[in-house]
Amino acid sequence: MSAPRTLYDKIFEDHVVDRQDDGTCLLYIDRHLVHEVTSPQAFEGLRLSGRKVRHPEKTLAVVDHNVSTSPERKFGIKNEESRIQVEALAKNAKDFGVEYYSENDIRQGIVHIIGPEQGFTLPGMTIVCGDSHTSTHGAFGALAHGIGTSEVEHVLATQTLIQRKAKNMLVRVDGQLPDGVTAKDIILAIIGEIGTAGGTGYVIEYAGEAIRALSMEGRMTICNMSIEGGARAGLIAADETTFAYVKDKPRAPKGAAWDAALEYWKTLQSDEGAHFDKVIVLDAAKLPPIVSWGSSPEDVVSVQGIVPNPDDISDENKRTSKQRALDYMGLTPGTKITDISLDRVFIGSCTNGRIEDLRAVAKVVEGKTVSPHVDAMIVPGSGLVKEQAEAEGLDKIFVAAGFDWREPGCSMCLAMNDDRLKPHERCASTSNRNFEGRQGFKGRTHLVSPAMAAAAAIAGHFVDIREWK
Ligand SMILES: CC(C)[C@H](C(=O)O)[C@@H](O)C(=O)O
Ligand code: SF4
């Protein structure tokens, strides 16, 4: 009998093409997603060396970071820099025979949203993209992580990647989530607990009753932010929820190929007794809705909490850095989180821009009105999410409440397009990063779940969604 293995061990080993004595491996890559920011030099490299894309059919390109989310975008991108990047991807995809979703394609959207939607992301696969939040796809029980531009070129040319095996971490979330507490709160709580470096050197597998109970959307939210906890990737073993989501997606296997795939996917579980180098256990029942107060995703507190006092931190470096975060955020220790007033609300991103997120928002805001001092926008994660939301009439609810309903893209998750905060503007955001300047120069970001962002838009300040009526 071979030793019990983790899910990560299994997927990794099934993809090893070559292993050197020092442990360096060459891994076969099943799927490569490409966006406009990290691919131009990679394609240029191929051009200069006269190489082709090894497997265009395993590669999918889309524009997301630089696209405008204004309905005007069908008339062309105004920002020169953005236009150049978008046009470069369109040309590279054409020249190298790679399928490409332009901003006018209904299937266009944030790269980590369109992969699962198309059935391009499947269990058991190795998936890479020149983007850190590629960890999202781990929700399908796929080994998925971000790579740098030189690696993008390597994968384009060879369909392989040089990797060393990471360590195994298990994060088990037991029990049931209280009403109003979501996948976003789980992952923010985990990062709060382990810190942004807690996952360094590990691939995290999420398990436990609360994870099993999540929809695919919720699982993607969790895996998406694994990278904010420092991990190489996040994984959730595929189960009936996964299979039901994947079935009949455009690129999912069909007929006999589906049956064969399903048989293999069912073997992709961590074995009983498999060794994890680190184990973290959380009780879902004890989790509150969470709000970030600082400039790192580990700076989190319960919505019922207060802005912490850095003076209470004994480590000097940490104290100084948290003091700086508070200064940047313009917050005073001891302030109740629910007393923090907002200027902007951003609902979207690859963390929380899917249909389930928009449904949660609609439930909170239906028949209500956005606070007069808040400017609030909702950006669907893809054209298909937008289409679905409109078919369900969600856009009407949003617009009636005073939200701006936009075209799909990364939008104000990061300030690479027209959507950005002005200096000192304070924003409740469903995205994944609250770094300094992330949503615009001197902009102030608070990370929250979609329902919490929605309620904050209406109230004009944070509110405990568990008390929402
Ligand atoms: C622009 C891109 C390379 C970047 C990433 O790698 O994650 C972006 O998507 C982000 O979220 O910061
Ligand atoms: S939505 Fe945000 S986190 Fe996701 S890929 Fe775009 S910029 Fe990165």
Automatic annotation (TrEMBL):
Pathway: Amino-acid biosynthesis; L-leucine biosynthesis; L-leucine from 3-methyl-2-oxobutanoate: step 2/4. Its cofactor is [4Fe-4S] cluster. GO terms for molecular function: 3-isopropylmalate dehydratase activity. [4Fe-4S] cluster binds at residues 350, 410, 413. It catalyses: (2R,3S)-3-isopropylmalate = (2S)-2-isopropylmalate. Residues 9-460 form the Aconitase/3-isopropylmalate dehydratase large subunit alpha/beta/alpha domain. Heterodimer of LeuC and LeuD. Belongs to the aconitase/IPM isomerase family. LeuC type 1 subfamily. Catalyzes the isomerization between 2-isopropylmalate and 3-isopropylmalate, via the formation of 2-isopropylmaleate. This is 3-isopropylmalate dehydratase large subunit. It comes from Mesorhizobium newzealandense.
